[in-house]
Design brief:
four-stranded antiparallel sheet, 15% strand, alpha+beta, 8 helices, Alpha-Beta Plaits
């Protein structure tokens, strides 16, 4: 593949997210990392840990997150990307063990009406324990955007593998199209001439809305 083709494909992915249907800023940029310990601080069983290296199993959790966000907040568009953690290398720099997977997700935003007039699902989230065993109602939230992020992360914590420790979920608000372009390029950073990865290895098309206008 020619070098300029990488750039063209990345630009195409950005445009598809940016201009599809009613998509508009702000978007959310979510990173999910799957930890080795459960909600109570106990080491997760070996069979489950092995699934962190299985792309198909990781996709099941991404699908669950997508469904949770749609059912709870009416999120209209969801775009998922898969990436490996850095693997183990020998003294010569050769990879001897590939890293486990983690995910990057871009979604459309939560409508203000979901917050101003919460239904039963959202009200249950407000009382659900999150970071530091505190509910959203007990956390200091200064803006509407912060409030939405707290709701979003608390909802995602209901998915298997996503425990309640703060490093499991990181959410960033994408306020402008230029910021969105930066995030898309970050999600596709391993799609370049120095790797053997195709963009289909990185984009989780099965759990994304690239084919929906």
């Amino acid at each position: 593949m020619r070098k300029n083709q990488y750039k063209e494909i990345k630009e195409s992915v950005y445009k598809k997210i940016s201009y599809s249907g009613d998509n508009q800023c702000p978007f959310y940029f979510i990173t999910l990392q799957y930890g080795f310990y459960d909600d109570n601080g106990y080491l997760i069983d070996f069979n489950t840990l092995c699934k962190y290296w299985d792309k198909t199993e990781v996709g099941k959790t991404v699908r669950l997150v997508r469904n949770l966000l749609r059912e709870t907040f009416g999120i209209t568009k969801f775009y998922a990307f898969t990436e490996r953690h850095e693997g183990q290398r020998d003294q010569y720099g050769e990879v001897i063990k590939k890293g486990r997977y983690h995910n990057h997700i871009i979604t459309t935003s939560i409508d203000n009406r979901v917050v101003s007039n919460p239904d039963r699902k959202v009200k249950r989230l407000l009382a659900r324990l999150g970071w530091n065993d505190k509910s959203i109602n007990e956390l200091p939230v200064n803006t509407l955007d912060e409030y939405k992020v707290q709701l979003l992360e608390t909802c995602i914590q209901k998915a298997n593998w996503v425990n309640r420790y703060s490093h499991s979920i990181k959410t960033e608000i994408i306020p402008t199209k230029q910021d969105l372009k930066r995030v898309v390029e970050y999600c596709l950073k391993n799609f370049n001439p120095s790797t053997e990865l195709d963009f289909t290895d990185i984009i989780d098309f099965d759990n994304s809305d690239f084919y929906i206008q």
